[in-house]
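Q: Okay, next protein. This is Putative hemin transport system permease protein HrtB from Paenibacillus typhae. I've checked the sequence twice, so it should be correct. Can you predict the 3D structure?
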Amino acid sequence: MSLFRLTLRNVLHRRFLSLLTVCAVAVTVGFIVLLTLSRESVEQGAKKGYGPFDLVIGAAGSETQLVLNTFYHIGAPTGNIPLAALDQAKQDQSVAEAYAMTTGDNYKGFPIVGLESGYFFTRYGGARLQEGSMYAHTGDTIVGSYVAKSLGLKVGDTFSGAHGLVQEEGLESAEAEHGEEHEEHGEEHGEGHDEDHAHGSFRYTVTGILPELHTPDDRAVFTTVDYAWAVHGLAPEDREITAVLVKPASLLGAHNLKQELDGSDGVQAVYTSKAVSDVLNAVDQGSRLLGVLTAICVLLAGISILLSLIAAAGERTKDVGLLRLLGKSRGYVWLTLTCEGLLVTATGLIAGLLLGHLGAYLLKDALFAQAGIQIQPYHWTPEHWLIALGAIAIGLLSSLGPAFRMYRMHPLALFKS
């Protein structure tokens, strides 16, 4: 009987214990693979999330909040700033491009972003729309590919937005149910009614659908900057913007503009890369905690393999003694147990790789919907090879103890025991 057939028969003879060991290895490997893919996706998504816009101007407050809201469409804006900040940025000789942004409304949970159309040409070059044309008039919109797919939107569709960045579920039914009560307390809730009515009566029209950009822009609705002014009927002197996206002509130019604007009239200018780096540092701190949990899982998987092989060695003492009496060498005996450990480990490794990528596939939509991070479930990273080598090494090391114990014993002692 060949060594492989003998090893396979021994593994199948102890199905339950072998299955538990395979599951321990598979869960550990799957967890590490999912963690690796998620971390790489977060890093890649964060780095390309802001494109060439190395500086962003917004209301004073949290730098991280400003960058996350502006480029990743996460969280609320820090506030509004005067239009004069846009004029100052555009007139600066060290600025290559500057675009205004307004935000604060949503459509079914997806942010509505007022943004000058030149942003798309500056960031994505000559990428064409998947369908339709760019917005040109107030109320025209183009929607990200993820939004169009999720909501079934197509060119020509119309809709109304809602105030805030989170859709209030059941708003219409609640209004109908409590209509009389709202009428009685009209003075108390009049301002809220006026705002709801303003958003409900303003209609957007889908004029185009963006191609898959693999950035947070896939999950947003874009329209003209003046949409917020039109919805709220603001006079020219009351008009403000949420942020200014700046592509500097040089790093020195970005520094000079930041010095001029930062801290003046409630305005802050933020280096985008610095704010993103702060977010990644926070992610790394969380990864360290997960790393500790991963190390514990690896240790438990190694112990599981070791216990499985110790049990196998105890069961197979007479069999090994008989093999030795039939003339099989000590090396053959050593290989039978070592190969058994490696076979169980390799089976768990393959199952774990499949499990990790399956988990990434199942979580990719949820991760993208919440954070705009596109996880690549089919991506193979250099760390995969390290995971595979580490798993095989742990399986081999766990096999050495029981195998060496059987190797040292005399065949008569093995048989008599």
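A: Here is a summary of the prediction. The chain has 16 helices and 13 strands. The CA atoms of residues 256 and 379 lie 41 Å apart.
Q: Noted. On to the next one.
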